[in-house]
Amino acid sequence: MTETVDVVLIGGGIMSATLGTLLHELQPDWKIVAFERLSDVAQESSNPWNNAGTGHAALCELNYMPDTGGDDIDPAKAVGINEQFQLSRQLWSTLVERGVLDEPSTFINATPHMTFVQGEKDVDYLRRRYEVLKKQPLFAGIEYSEDSRVINQWAPLLMQKRLKGKKFAATRVPAGTDVDFGALTHQLFDHLQKNGTTVYKNREVRSLKQQKDGTWRLKYRDTIGSTPGEIKARFVFVGAGGWALKMLQRSGIPEIKGYGVFPIGGQFLKTTNPKIVAQHKAKVYSQASVGAPPMSVPHLDARVVDGESSLLFGPFATFSPKFLKQGSLLDIVTQVRPHNLWPMLRVAFANPDLITYLVGELMKNHHKKVDSLRTFMPTAKDEDWTLIQAGQRAQVMKKDAKKGGVLQFGTEVITAKDGTIAGLLGASPGASTAVPIMLDVLQRCFPEQYKGWESAIEELIPTYGTKLNTDPAAAQASMAATAGVLGISE
């Protein structure tokens, strides 16, 4: 007889780990089962070397506040993302206090977030952005300078042997963080397993079909021995990165119609040279190249993974038809359906700059990539840096009433009308906002239970349901509290 469980999580990344943790805390009597097709969890987008580890709080990413050409730059999106990240920080803090998570330094470390720009136009924009953000309570402490001596104190590698005469400017928020989402994912799954959750590794879900009683029958196979199996679930969450689209298409839910994804890979330059690493203790973002997707904004990042410090620079876009690093070469073709073909064609027609950008990136050799780094770090030498392959990102393409189809940067939750299945498409800010995204999944899919869970959610996330940015005192108190628990105070 096929086992029936309460929840099945497809994919062993930070999203599934976060949702599983929330459900365990809110409904400890539910039976949860997770499936990961690889030999361990956190091997795709959540792996620390497949992302930049930025705790995305919109402190340094310019694409969350595009230049409007005037003083009325809208901070709403940046503030919203910061609000979301605060929820993640609060949950992590609570889980540290409860012993669910290990010593905070194993997954999060204080790392100032900076933005560095060059040229009169971008300097003027950064100055106007700073004037807007410094008034926002969640961005308290943001600093701005056009003084080379000050910027040299913040990040010496940016200023050494820089040619005089060119305008540049930088902002700095000391309260930024570097997050190892791989370590965080492992710790969450470890706790779930200790408390009754079954995590099947080397198991690939091949099909899922809803039964007459509303449950889902999932068929899977052992990726090593090809042994088949099946399980039934009252609720299914698809947190399988780029393969979430494939799983949701196989489910047959009408809500997935019109969606497609465009895969974009990435590479980083990496150094562990202690003399170089010791001089850079920040994450520094700049403007994206013309035609580049927001996920390709260049940045020079301090990283701490497994206790080792290093620097990454990039990303450099690559192209593969795979939706995951360990996906299938047929992914980009097998996603095509009559309902999403036109939106995808419209996206291709409307984004020639993106194609040009990708071709240009693919033609860069190692020396050219280090040349790009030298715009940040003039003293960079080819031999100090090695190239590593980052993760695959599947950017959402979907129907649009006016344009026929649009390429969407960000994340999108897809839920069935009856709330029995949900999945996540898209990328950045992704992992950093996993907590609010998964709370959204719970609210959509479990509306009846959700009201009864709210008091427990407030225990996990003290400011849940409030907007910190409208209350300076509350914002300061919350950030100070989580910084103290997580060990990320200045």
Automatic annotation (TrEMBL):
Pfam families for the chain: Mqo (PF06039)
GO biological process, one term: tricarboxylic acid cycle
Chain segments annotated as transmembrane: none
EC number of the protein: 1.1.5.4
Keyword annotations of the record: FAD, Flavoprotein, Oxidoreductase, Tricarboxylic acid cycle
Gene3D superfamilies: D-Amino Acid Oxidase, subunit A, domain 2, FAD/NAD(P)-binding domain
Swiss-Prot/TrEMBL catalytic activity: (S)-malate + a quinone = a quinol + oxaloacetate
Cofactor(s) needed for function: FAD
InterPro entries hit by this protein: FAD/NAD-bd_sf (IPR036188), MQO (IPR006231)
SUPFAM superfamilies the UniProt entry points to: FAD/NAD(P)-binding domain (SSF51905)
Family: Belongs to the MQO family.
Protein name: Probable malate:quinone oxidoreductase
Gene transcribed to yield this protein: mqo1
